[in-house]
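can u do me a favor
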C-alpha cells in the first residue's frame, strides 16, 4: 500500500477520523504495513504490547486457549477495525492471541507514535475510550448470553449479529451472510463444541429457517420469528 492508500484507510477509522489532512498524511508516513497469510499468529497472549494494528484487508480473530487447547473466540475484526490498543495504554502484556482468518494486510502503529498522536490530539482519546466502552459492553452481552441462553439460542443470536455486520439483503427476502465462519469458529464464539453447532445449523436448515450455500448462510425471514433471535 502506498502512503495515499494508508491515509484514506486511516481516515475511515474512528479514532483518526477527526484528523486534518496534514496530520493524517504525516501519520501515514510513520506506520508500517505487514502482510500475513491465513492462519498466521499476529501476536500471542502475554507478548509485550508495543504496537496497535489497523486492518487494511482481511479478517482476524481474538482468541484465548484453555488448558485442554479449546479455543474461545472473543471477537472477530475486519477491514477498517483496529486492535491491540489496550496494551499501549496500560503498559501490560497482550491479554489474548490474534490470528488471521484469511490473508490479511495490517497497518502497524508503534507505541511511541500512538502516544504522541494522543498527546497532540486529546480529542482522539475520547474516541479510544468510546471504543473500549463499546467492546466492554459487547463482552458483558456475551457473558449474559452464555449464562441465559441455551446453545441453539446462542447460535441464533450469533447468526443475527453476523447478518448485521456482514449481511446483505437478497431478492425474495432474507439476508445472506457473505463470509460464513467455520463451525469450529462459531463453536469458539459461543463456548460449545463443533458437533453441537453442526446439529443446530442442521436443525435450523431442516425447519426452513436458513440455507447453507457454499461459504455463505442465507437467513430466511422466518428465522427472526421462529429461532428465538
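np, heres the sequence
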Amino acid at each position: 500500500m502506498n502512503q495515499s492508500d494508508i491515509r484514506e484507510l486511516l481516515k475511515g477509522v474512528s479514532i483518526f477520523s477527526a484528523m486534518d489532512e496534514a496530520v493524517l498524511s504525516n501519520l501515514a508516513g510513520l506506520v508500517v504495513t505487514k502482510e500475513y497469510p491465513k492462519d498466521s499468529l499476529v501476536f500471542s497472549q502475554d507478548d509485550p504490547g508495543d504496537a496497535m494494528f489497523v486492518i487494511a484487508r482481511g479478517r482476524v480473530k481474538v482468541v484465548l486457549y484453555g488448558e485442554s487447547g479449546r479455543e474461545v473466540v472473543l471477537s472477530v475484526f475486519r477491514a477498517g477495525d483496529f486492535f491491540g490498543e489496550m496494551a499501549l495504554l496500560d503498559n501490560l502484556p497482550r491479554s489474548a492471541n490474534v490470528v488471521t482468518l484469511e490473508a490479511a494486510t495490517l497497518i502497524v502503529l508503534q507505541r511511541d507514535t500512538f502516544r504522541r498522536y494522543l498527546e497532540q490530539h486529546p480529542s482522539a482519546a475520547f474516541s479510544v475510550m468510546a471504543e473500549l466502552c463499546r467492546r466492554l459492553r459487547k463482552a458483558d452481552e456475551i457473558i449474559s448470553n452464555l449464562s441465559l441462553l441455551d446453545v441453539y439460542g446462542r447460535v441464533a443470536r450469533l447468526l443475527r449479529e453476523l447478518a448485521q455486520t456482514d449481511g446483505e439483503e437478497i431478492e425474495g427476502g432474507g439476508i445472506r451472510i457473505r463470509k460464513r465462519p467455520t463451525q469450529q469458529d462459531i463453536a469458539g464464539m459461543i463456548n460449545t463444541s463443533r458437533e453441537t453447532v453442526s446439529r443446530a445449523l442442521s436443525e435450523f436448515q431442516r425447519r426452513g429457517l436458513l440455507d447453507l450455500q457454499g461459504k455463505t448462510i442465507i437467513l430466511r425471514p422466518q428465522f427472526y420469528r421462529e429461532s428465538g433471535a
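The mean pLDDT is 84. hope that helps!!
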